[in-house]
Request: fold
Amino acid sequence: MVFKPWKSTVERLDEPNQAQENTRPLARRCNQYVAGIQDQEKLSGERIWSCAVYELYNISYTEDTEALNVAALSGNLSREAYVTAVTQIEFKAVRRTAEFYHSVWSPYSKNRGLATHDEYWFASAPETYDGWIARYSGSSYYPYKGYGEFYDNNIVPYLRAQANSKVRVMNPQTKFEDLAFSHHLNNITGTSKAFCK
Reply:
């Protein structure tokens, strides 16, 4: 893989005001959700690139995520099991982002005398899922705030409706973007079927 960002894009996005004003969905997501930080800080070009790479790897696991959601809608996953499975999928994207940093971004930048920030790329993240997820203690934010709340607000009501009805509310084989999840994704990413876990 050869990485060749257009110089004008890198220069433009490296200016914090330009990065903040960019209205593309990925840039909005980066500005709100990079590395679990929701402080609306203005982001550098490198930070936005790292977010883009991470989210592109994340979207490559869409089929895994859809299968996970079908299992949850079928009543086969508890809240805890659901959150664990979602974060295991995300961890794959974390590892691939770190690999991209080491094999592409860092060498490219070093060859051009550019400084990098390996923390943007999960380059120092633990190499095992258990080591990585242990860094997120408590349930006040990641992963329970997003995924636990999603389970509580979408999966549980669906399962209750199924249990209380002779008529199926929805076929669990339905693509998940057709559910309320797409609204949840839209709020996170700014797109209807975005770079999702």
Observations:
- The chain has nine helices and no strands.
